[in-house]
From TrEMBL:
Belongs to the peptidase S9A family. InterPro entries: AB_hydrolase_fold, Pept_S9_AS, Pept_S9A_N, Peptidase_S9_cat, Peptidase_S9A, Serine_Peptidase_S9A. Its EC number is 3.4.21.83. It comes from Rhizobium aquaticum. Residues 479-695 form the Peptidase S9 prolyl oligopeptidase catalytic domain. It holds the Pfam family Peptidase_S9_N. This is Oligopeptidase B. Transmembrane segments: none annotated. Residues 13-419 form the Peptidase S9A N-terminal domain.
Length: 697
């Protein structure tokens, strides 16, 4: 029986069929008109959105609100619970960087971070960027942080006030707190200083939202006078710019999802042409970190699928001079690496669990930092200074709040600096975290991390929120979530399916969930649901599936493949119109996405493969479960019209009685609302939907 009663009539989008023929196949799209012709302008100014499109999105918002009206009190209760678990005046542990230590904090009632610094040897805290002050009067604000100059007198900071991820950069005098005249628009969000602090480098986003150019800005000059340092003409590549700990080099990082190329600019000659390290080779990845007279290179070259670490002289880092330092081990995935004066450090994952490894550069002696819980998360922060023996890392599990440690690599002393506070109280002993294995359709074992209260009955009666992502090699950590406790405290089993497409079980796990292996991602998720039912953790009519972005595509695929196995589905900014998007090379992320999904423009095989699973193209007459889709009007990653079109088509074809709901945030993008508590309101809506569908109100 449906949990939704007395619903008003749902909106019906007008049908305006558009035909598209590729590779001899004609598709008809009745809802393509929801894609605004002036979408690029909408990202900068939402008031120019076509009135017919705006009217439809607002009608969907009104319908969603009516359908969820009886949960408003629950949403407020959930919001209060989740807010109560956040220390309102929380502060990070400042990180030493030269004569200062830098960090951030929040104030009671504040939505945005405040960035600060204190003298490294102790002294008064100086606020260098007040996020709440900058957000005053704005519907949306996302800060890009503050990067101090090498002499710590200036800082470059950025902000996006529309949700479109076009950032404006400013330069602040850190002694007076005043911004200088420099104002740079349409950037990627950060700046990399030269060694003297007189200029910085940044990426410029083009009209298609691609970081295609890197510019050099000299303080005091207008943006129009900035020098173009490098332009990437391949629309399938992203670019980034960064600096070394020793301020010797500016790194230009050119990459897509499986190929990288570096170019180096010596800070001693800023007008020189950036020097190529190793030319891009399809499928070859490498990453540089400087270690004095040499570079340490993390790479998958020559068949090192799970990566190895090489070294090369700084003067001649080309590939013929690479020498193996940390060999490749199948099943030991090296995730990232850092170099310091006396130590080399890397974060690796074995058997789905992370650990930090430290190697003494003089003796080559190694030791590891690991923990004993069945499932946990490690984060390696490292250090800002190069000449140090102390690095920082964080640890948490689904029951253990986040802990921040300083670790002395020489003495192996571990110092706990901070444990995440839960003001409303949290007893880890009340909860259980487990890692179980589900058998997928081809026999692969899929890890599933679980959180539930000790007193939860495991007889099939518990509702379950099953989360999945499964793309781009992104691994979902089994980390502490104060929000998830609101579900666990209501008898839910909170589950994370570590499906193929991530790297939880090595690089092969990623490869087996992309391109020709993409459907493994969907089958793994369904297998996780089957296993949870088989083992008595839940039952099919009590599972609510959740995923966002590429995980939203997962939601659309499993809704088509196995609608009977889910009571409800939450799809946040879902990438569901995969084929149409991959056929449109004018969209911001389409060319860089081809290595992940395939290029259906050039390849008939890719076209047919994507068409076979693309959620929008495979909607059909079947009883879809209750569904909540969330979109952002200024989202450049998953454009708002994808979920809008999907919902319209689902509502047209479903043979069931459950509602299909769409909420479009008319003032935000891919990440939703920008404030820390505003985001909780969106989470409260999602959880209220899950609780309602599960019959636990």
């Amino acid at each position: 029986m449906s949990a939704f009663k007395c619903l008003p009539e749902a909106p019906r989008a007008a049908k305006k069929p558009v035909e598209d023929t590729r590779h001899g196949v004609t598709r008809i799209d009745e809802y393509q008109w929801l894609r605004a012709d002036n979408w690029q302008q909408v990202f900068h100014d939402t008031s120019v959105l076509d009135p017919e499109i705006r009217s439809y999105l607002e009608a969907e918002n009104a319908y969603m609100k009516a359908a969820m009206a009886d949960t408003e009190a629950l949403q407020k209760q959930l919001f209060a619970e989740m807010k109560g678990r956040i220390k309102e005046d929380d502060s990070s542990v400042p990180m030493k960087d030269g004569p200062f230590a830098y960090g951030s904090f929040y104030v009671t009632g504040g939505e945005q971070p405040h960035y600060f610094r204190i003298p490294a040897e102790g002294g008064e805290r100086q606020v260098i960027l007040d996020g709440d002050k900058e957000a005053a009067g704005k519907e949306y604000l996302r800060l890009a942080g503050m990067e101090s100059s090498p002499d710590h007198t200036l800082g470059v900071w950025g902000y996006d006030d529309k949700g479109s991820e076009f950032f404006t950069l400013r330069v602040r005098d850190l002694t007076t707190g005043e911004d200088m005249a420099d104002l740079l628009e349409n950037t990627g969000g950060g700046g990399t200083w030269d060694a003297e602090g007189k200029s910085f480098f940044y990426t410029l986003q083009d009209e298609n939202h691609r970081p295609s150019k890197i510019f050099h800005h000299i303080l005091g000059q207008p943006q129009s006078a900035d020098r173009l340092v490098y332009e990437e003409t391949d629309p399938g590549m992203f670019m980034g710019v960064g600096g070394s700990r020793l301020d010797d080099f500016i790194y230009i990082d050119i990459h897509d999802h499986d190929t990288t190329e570096y170019r180096l600019l010596s800070t001693k000659d800023l007008l020189a042409e950036p020097k190529l390290v190793v030319a891009r080779e399809p499928g070859m990845q490498y990453e540089l970190t400087e270690g004095g007279d040499r570079f340490f290179i993390l790479t998958n070259c020559d068949g090192a699928k799970d990566f190895k670490i090489m070294e090369a002289p700084v003067e001649s880092p080309s590939k013929e001079n690479w020498r193996e330092l940390v060999p490749h081990e199948a099943g030991r995935l090296i995730l990232n690496h850092m170099a310091f004066a006396r130590h080399l450090v890397w974060l690796e994952r074995r058997d789905g669990l992370p650990r930090i490894v430290i190697r003494d550069r003089a003796t080559n002696e190694e030791h590891a930092i690991a923990f004993d819980e069945e499932a946990y998360s490690l984060g390696l922060t490292g250090a800002a200074d190069y000449d140090t023996d102390v690095i920082r890392f964080s640890y948490s599990s689904m029951t253990t709040p986040n802990q921040v440690f300083d670790y002395n690599m020489a003495t192996r002393e571990r110092t706990l600096l901070k444990t995440q506070e839960v003001p409303s109280g949290h007893n880890p002993d009340d909860y259980v975290t487990r890692r179980i294995q589900a058998v997928s359709n081809d026999g692969e074992l899929v890890p599933v991390s679980l959180l539930y209260r000790k007193d939860t009955a495991l007889d099939g009666s518990a509702p379950c929120l099953l989360y999945g992502y499964g793309a781009y090699g992104i691994s979902i950590p089994a980390s502490f979530s104060t929000n998830a406790l609101s579900l666990a405290d209501r008898g839910f089993v909170y589950a994370i399916a570590h499906i193929r497409g991530g790297k939880e079980k090595g690089y092969r796990w990623y490869e087996d969930g992309k391109l020709a292996g993409k459907e493994n991602t969907f089958k793994d998720f369904i297998a996780a649901a089957d296993h949870l039912v088989k083992e008595g953790f839940t039952s099919y009519h009590r599972i609510i599936a959740e995923g966002g972005s590429a995980g939203g595509m997962l939601m659309g695929a499993v809704a088509n493949m196995a609608p009977e196995k889910f009571a409800g589905i939450i799809a946040a900014v879902p990438f569901v119109d995969v084929l149409t998007t991959m056929l449109d090379d004018t969209l911001p992320l389409t060319p860089p996405e081809w290595p992940e999904w395939g290029n259906p423009i050039e390849s008939e095989e890719d076209y047919k493969r994507i068409a076979a699973y693309s959620p929008y193209d495979n909607v059909g007459p079947k009883p879809y479960p209750a569904l909540l889709a969330l979109a952002g009007l200024t989202d450049p990653r998953v454009t708002y019209w994808e979920p809008a079109k999907w919902v319209a088509r689902l509502r047209e074809h479903t043979t069931g009685s459950e509602p299909i709901l769409l909420k479009t945030n008319m003032g935000a993008g891919h990440g939703g609302a920008s404030g820390r508590f505003q985001r909780l309101e969106e989470t409260a809506l999602e959880y209220a939907f899950a609780i309602k569908v599960a019959g636990k109100m």
